[in-house]
Specification:
Elements: E1 9-15, E2 18-23, E3 26-28, H1 32-53, H2 58-64, H3 71-96, H4 104-111, H5 113-118, H6 133-157, H7 164-195, H8 199-204, E4 207-209, H9 210-216, H10 218-225, H11 229-235
């Protein structure tokens, strides 16, 4: 099955956010709007994370603060980066909340998450739709992190509102969520690049190959094509992943 870009164009999406061209052998994975929102979330998260870690310890301060010009500027910008992140996440939640709702099959996926992480070239179970259980967990962790960052961040921004004990509680949860998000970010980065080849393409260009779709999201493949992913995979010689 041809997947290169010198083959026939079969579909094109034109919006004010950009253009997505789907070629033969490909499927539309993410719209231009979805991709713009995703990268805004990523950018604002990284800026908030870096400016926050610049204030986290003297060692990190020495390495990261110069990126923003000075420690004082990092301290000034950090709350605004956090607000921008929360707004970007709000738009992402509005777009994906329904698709990310938790279902019984996702619980089954979590039980076999180790297989997903170690056997990336084997087809996923037939029930895996557009997003698997791990992706849904990461989505909701990120959504709730935005809430926690925003609430605790406002109190840290205006420390005179709370008592000293309440302030330390805010510091604890703010920093804890930052560390959790840092770990989740590295996992997300790995799975979206070298861990699952072909995934990043969907968020850059908006499309994935049919082979990638029937390998990693067979129920979604069936939904958007009306075809049997197992039968199509067998007819294509068992091609997987990319």
């Amino acid at each position: 099955m041809a997947t290169t870009h010198n083959v026939q164009r079969v579909e094109a999406e034109h919006t004010s956010f950009g253009r997505t061209t789907v070629y033969e052998g490909e499927l539309l994975r993410h719209s231009a709007y979805t991709r713009v929102v995703h990268w805004l979330v990523a950018l604002t998260f990284l800026l908030a994370l870096l400016s926050g870690f610049a204030l986290f310890s003297p060692w990190l301060y020495a390495w990261i603060a110069p990126i923003f010009g000075s420690g004082a500027r990092a301290r000034l910008l950090h709350p605004w980066f956090g607000i921008a992140f929360a707004i970007a996440v709000l738009f992402q939640v509005r777009g994906w909340a329904y698709q990310m709702r938790w279902q019984p099959k996702d619980r089954e996926w979590v039980k076999h998450a180790k297989d997903y992480a170690t056997k990336t070239d084997e087809p996923e179970p037939e029930y895996v739709g557009k997003f698997n259980g791990g992706q849904k967990i990461w989505f909701w962790v990120m959504a709730w992190s935005a809430v926690i960052f925003l609430v605790t961040g406002v109190f840290l921004w205006f420390p005179e509102i709370l008592s000293r004990t309440a302030m330390w509680i805010c510091y604890f949860f703010h920093d804890l969520m930052g560390l959790i998000m840092l770990g989740g970010f590295f996992i997300h980065l790995y799975e979206g690049t070298s861990g699952i080849p072909g995934t990043l393409r969907g968020m850059l260009h908006g499309t994935v190959t049919r082979a990638w779709a029937w390998t990693h999201h067979p129920a979604w493949y069936r939904e958007v094509t009306g075809r049997d992913p197992i039968r199509d995979r067998e007819q294509d010689g068992g091609q997987l992943s990319r």
